[in-house]
Amino acid sequence: MTLELADRLISRPVGVAEDVFVKVGTFHFLADFVVVDYDPDPRVPLILGRSFLKTKRALIDVFEVELTLHVGKETITFNLDQTL
Questions:
Q1: Is 0.85 topped by the overall pTM?
Q2: Alpha-carbon dihedral 62, 65, 71, 74, rounded to 10 degrees
Q3: Backbone angles phi, psi at 7, to 5 degrees
Q4: Kind of pairing, strands 10-11 and 59-61?
Q5: What is the C-alpha R_g of the chain?
Q6: pLDDT digits 0-9 by tens, 9-35
């Protein structure tokens, strides 16, 4: 497998981490991650995969700059301006 990173560099994964327990706010999820060895740029945010966003019924409000995740009847909202 090869990946094209945000800066258009091509990278090969070091491995895959499956069923990793992740805490997002008050929610807990199992998630899979592709592990890539690269020099991080703090100006480039982590981009969540579409499958994660779909599973957690994510709503992205571009005008309000918010990301809302739904789990059952509970929700958590992140102000994306504060995450950078």
A1: no
A2: -120
A3: -90, 15
A4: unpaired
A5: 14
A6: 888 888 888 988 888 778 787 888 888
